[in-house]
Amino acid sequence: MSIYLGIDIGTSGTKTLAMREDGCILASATETYPLSTPQPGWSEQNPAHWWRATVKTVQSVLKEARAKPDDVEGIGLSGQMHGSVFLDKSNRVIRPALLWNDQRTQAECEEIEECAGGRKKLIRLVANPALTGFTAPKILWLRNNEPRNFDRVRQVLLPKDYVRFRLTGEFATEVSDASGTLLLDVRRRKWSRKLLSLLELDPSLLPEVYESDEISGRVTPAIAAELGIPPGTPVVGGGGDQAAGAVGNGIVRRGVVSATMGTSGVVFAHSDEVQIDPEGRVHTFCHAVRDKWHVMGVVLSAGGSLQWYRDEFCQAEVKEAARKGIDPYELITAEAANAPAGCEGLFFLPYLTGERTPHTDPYARGAWIGLTRRHGRAHLVRSVIEGATYAMKDSLEIIKGLDIPVKQIRVSGGGARSPFWRQVQADIYGQKVRTINAHEGPAFGVALLAAAGTGAYRDVVEACRATIATVETTAPKSADKKVYQAAYPHYGRLYSTLREEFGEIATLVGQR
User: Fold this and answer.
1) What DSSP state is assigned to residue 206?
2) Taking CA 221 as the corner, what is the angle to CA 216 and CA 225, rounded to the nearest 5 degrees?
């Protein structure tokens, strides 16, 4: 039996699965770990937690799958993008990693744009503007704020690539994750020597770049013995979580788009060519498919907004769900369904951790707007769901404006598991949404990349065609679709009206 392992280094935990060659999932395991927020707007993790979770979950799935060591043919790695792991000359971690949702680097973003000669020139160099979540600003932050630590740095790795180093001893990354560092020449799929020079960063700090299905290293004998797999097991490049998740959803051809509603929300479109938004509202990155690219919009608190609502206002529902053995979101969305589409003029802005697409504003704030005495809990929770979905539609509309066709939308994540939220998405997007037979996300995507990269399939496109199919379609309701078409422009104007005030609030609380 041939088994391929997919390992996804997430923000809240690491997930590993064992996949048979035909796409059948034999076993899956997740190990969680903490997130540190030492100051407002900061977000850090200890890379040692990722490694311990990797070892534990690999051992667990191999045991559950009853796999023999020689069954494992290859490993694929995925992970949260943009995070910065700083290693010294002895390959030891210097400080906790700065994560994708860390907002401390606005000054460094401005520094990068100035060094590049302005925002437009930066976009021409690396296809994207400087955003606080990206890796390059984090490197500059370390140089500007912790110079002693910066002087010790000999290697900068992304989260999944730190795990790769622990597995193989190799410093390596791949094109999709490297795109999110802001240091990759996305058109040419290699590090931008010009930008590195302008920023006075030594190229030797960065690892070698591979294609996503290319073998980047092999598991060392000592680690193989610890995990219970053959020494020399190939590890392919893998992918950043969004590109890997897109492979796991079959987004590997033109016209098919994914809308993933997790903690963050991502609208992801495959592109056969490099297509760049000159305003930098959406990202253009290398895809995990060889010689292809993708355009992506990111909502920082999509499902995260509903999670916040659950944690702060739904303790009774959480307790009731525990007694009944069900997911508390079932009770929460059932309540939301009692309110009408559009919530009688109540809007929720889901900017609880700032926003990326389309506003690129780390100081944006969440808000309910339009409250009246008519509004109750059902309106409040439904407006959160609608606000997160409006934010996703922002990305979808920008992608359409770049002349990228949107013929099919595949939904996944927590927003796809709920029939109610699937319907809201169909109504707000204004077209059918589909779910697929695969639900394992990035871990499944990189297992497919491992299968393709070690010869089980000709390429990743063939692997997706062989293993992924749509299973359910949700069409928009005509009446609700009209309500949202009328409401959406008002939603879009609210941020513009409040933008300056958001900045003042950030100053008031010492974030700016």
Assistant:
1) S
2) 120
Pairing of strands 25-32, 97-98: unpaired
pLDDT digits (tens, 9 = 90+) for 27-71: 999 999 999 999 988 999 999 999 999 999 999 999 999 999 899
Q: Is 213 a catalytic residue?
A: no
Q: Which residues contact 33 (CB under 8 A, 6 or more apart)?
A: 12, 13, 14, 45, 46, 49, 50, 52, 53
**How do strand 433-436 and strand 408-413 relate by DSSP bridges?**
parallel
The per-residue pLDDT of the chain, averaged, comes to 96
Calculate the alpha carbon distances from 322 to 68, 90, 311, 316, 414 in Å.
Answer: 37, 47, 14, 10, 18
Q: What secondary structure letter does DSSP report for 376?
A: -
DSSP 264: S
Read off φ and ψ for residue 200, nearest 5 degrees.
55, 45
Which amino acid is located at 215 in the chain? Answer: I
Amino acid present at 193: R
Name the amino acid, one letter, at 334: A
The catalytic residue among 8, 241, 277, 427 is 241
- Please name which of 192, 65, 84, 88 lies closest in space to residue 141, comparing C-alpha atoms: 84
In the predicted structure, residue 330 carries a pLDDT above the cut 80: yes
